[in-house]
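=== RUN LOG ===
request id: a7f3
mode: sequence -> structure
chains: 1
length: 307
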Amino acid sequence: MKLSTKHLLGIKDLQKEDIETILSTAKEFKEVLQRPIKKVPSLRDITIVNLFYENSTRTRISFELAEKRLSADTINFAVSGSSAAKGETLLDTVNNILSMKVDMVVMRHSASGAPHFLAKHIPAAILNAGDGINEHPTQALLDAYSMTEKFGSLKGLNVALVGDIMHSRVALSNIYLLKKMGANVTVVGPPTLIPKYIKEAFDINVEYDIKKGLQWCDVANVLRIQLERQNQPLFSSLREYNLSYGVSRKLLESLGKEITIMHPGPINRGVELDSDVADGTQSIILNQVENGVAVRMACLYLLSDKN
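=== RESULT ===
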């Protein structure tokens, strides 16, 4: 099995067949993770550097665990304790790492396009673990795997992406993937958090009424309000946002149907999602976390020379 690309920079660059290959490979690796010994020698002698220029908990731990489960050698690079904090350029940093004979780079960066820049300048395989407000491909893939696991197929599935669409790299990657796989997509949120061009650019629906959006969908992927990326106030207060767009138990019970709740994390409890919804029976958020390791194992394996 081979992907049509050497790097995983974004869902935009993947073929539908690539997505299907990653999801089917992830299914095999998830079976490995159910065994008493959860380790396979698939990437033995492969060296992977985790290059995180932005804070991360779930994604970084998930990649580290995936690498260890595949028996890869890993190097964790923290910018705060490195020469990057002294002004060393991204390219110098990576070239120094590559001189240590690294095969793959997993990268998160606050600048959109940073992994694409690296892919043009260095020979190692690059996996984008989130770049600015552009893409977060492995999150979209694990979301897709989680939905496929529950519903059997993405084709014809009604998926609502709820919340801060404008600043969400998860939203963009999900839109690309869901459209390629035949799902129907609606973005739901306040007008200030939904780009004006999105309806025409991606041929998706836009809904400003949260109840109507949830009544339409089979799955609601609720996104985090990204205050750190908002350089001006886009709604009056978090309390006001929660009252207008927060997903509560009361709101779900008023729909007259049961929908599945997802969230890429970290959750702002009491803002976009109430705790009794996040921890409730309709939520598959912990499934997403579990599936993240299998999906990232699949991506690392398929992009390695060992495949």
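=== NOTES ===
The first helix runs from residue 16 to 33.
The radius of gyration is 19 Å.
=== END ===
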